[in-house]
C-alpha cells in the first residue's frame, strides 16, 4: 500500500473517531426542527406555547409546514390559542329527562390535530321541536368552526360531506355542553353524522356517526 493511500485511510479513521466521540453534541441536529426549536416564522413570544404542545401535534404541524408553510403557521396560531368555553346550557339535562332521543353517536379522534370527545344526540321534545345536543363535549381548536349534519355516516374530509349538508351555525365553544335548534318539518332521517368543521382550513375536526 503506497503512502498516499495510507494517509487517506488514516484520515478517514480519524474523522470517524472524532464524529463518534462528539456525537452527543451534534446528534440534536438529526431531530426535526420543530422538536428541538421553535416553529419557523412564529413570533418569539409564542414559541413557548408552541413547544408546550404535545409532541404528536408538533410533528403533525411540522409535516404540514413541509407542504404549505403559510397554512401551517396559521394552524399553529390556532392550536395555541385559548380554549373557547361554550355558554352554560341547561337544556342537555332537560333533554335527557323530558325529550326522546332519536339518534346518537360519539365524536372520534382523526389525528393529533383533528379530534373530539363527547356525545352528539338528536332529541325530539313533546311539542315536536328537535335539537342537536352536544354533551361532555370537547374538541381541537379551529378557525371559523361550524356544526354540520351530513348524509355520509363518517366523512373524514370536505369532499365527503356532500353538497346537501345541514349547517346548524357556529360552534358555540370547543369545550362544554351545547344545543342547536333543528329546522321544523325537516326530514332528519337522511342525516347520518354530526360534524365539527373548520372553514378556515377546510378540515373536518371531528365527526360522530348517528345511529
Give the integer mean of the pLDDT values.
88
Write down the overall geometry.
elongated
User: Helix and strand succession?
Assistant: HHHHHHHEEEEHEEEE
User: Which stretches are low in confidence, meaning pLDDT under 50 for 5 or more residues running?
Assistant: 23-31
Q: Please count the beta strands (DSSP E, at least 2 residues each).
A: 8
Spatial arrangement of strands, main beta sheet: 1-2-3-6
Structural class: alpha+beta
Summarize the biggest pleated sheet: 4 strands, antiparallel
In what range is the share of β-strand residues? 25-35%
Q: What's the total helix number?
A: 8
N- and C-termini, Cα separation: 79 Å
| Oligomeric composition of the shown chains | single chain
Helix content: 25-40%
Rg computed from alpha carbons, rounded to a whole number of angstroms: 25 Å
Topology summary:
Layout lengths: L2 H19 L1 H4 L6 H4 L10 H5 L3 H13 L1 H11 L11 H8 L1 E7 L9 E9 L5 E10 L5 E6 L7 H4 L4 E5 L7 E4 L11 E6 L4 E7 L2
Antiparallel strand pairs: 1-2, 2-3, 3-6, 4-5, 4-7, 7-8
Helix pairs in contact: 5-6
Task: Please describe what this structure looks like.
The chain has 211 residues and is an alpha+beta fold. The protein has 8 helices and 8 strands. It has helices spanning 3-21, 23-26, 33-36, 47-51, 55-67, 69-79, 91-98, 158-161, and strands spanning 100-106, 116-124, 130-139, 145-150, 166-170, 178-181, 193-198, 203-209. The strands form 2 sheets. It has a 4-stranded antiparallel beta sheet with strand order 1-2-3-6, covered by helices on one side. Helix 5 (55-67) runs antiparallel to helix 6. It starts with a helix and ends with a strand. The model is unreliable at 23-31 (pLDDT under 50).
Amino acid at each position: 500500500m503506497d503512502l498516499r493511500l495510507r494517509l487517506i485511510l488514516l484520515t478517514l479513521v480519524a474523522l470517524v473517531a472524532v464524529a463518534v466521540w462528539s456525537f452527543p453534541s451534534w446528534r440534536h441536529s438529526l431531530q426535526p426542527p420543530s422538536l428541538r426549536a421553535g416553529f419557523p416564522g412564529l413570533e418569539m413570544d409564542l414559541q413557548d406555547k408552541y413547544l408546550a404542545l404535545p409532541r404528536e401535534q408538533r410533528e403533525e404541524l411540522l409535516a404540514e409546514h413541509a407542504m404549505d408553510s403559510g397554512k401551517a403557521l396559521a394552524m399553529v396560531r390556532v392550536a395555541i390559542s385559548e380554549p373557547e368555553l361554550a355558554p352554560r346550557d341547561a337544556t342537555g339535562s332537560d333533554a335527557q329527562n323530558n325529550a326522546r332521543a332519536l339518534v346518537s353517536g360519539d365524536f372520534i379522534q382523526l389525528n393529533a390535530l383533528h379530534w373530539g370527545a363527547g356525545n352528539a344526540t338528536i332529541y325530539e321534545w313533546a311539542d315536536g321541536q328537535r335539537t342537536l345536543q352536544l354533551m361532555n363535549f370537547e374538541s381541537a381548536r379551529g378557525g371559523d368552526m361550524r356544526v354540520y349534519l351530513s348524509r355520509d355516516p363518517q366523512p373524514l374530509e370536505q369532499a365527503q360531506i356532500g353538497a346537501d349538508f345541514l349547517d346548524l351555525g357556529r360552534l358555540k365553544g370547543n369545550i362544554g355542553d351545547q344545543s342547536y335548534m333543528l329546522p321544523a318539518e325537516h326530514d332528519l332521517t337522511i342525516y347520518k353524522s354530526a360534524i365539527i368543521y373548520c372553514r378556515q382550513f377546510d378540515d373536518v375536526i371531528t365527526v360522530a356517526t348517528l345511529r
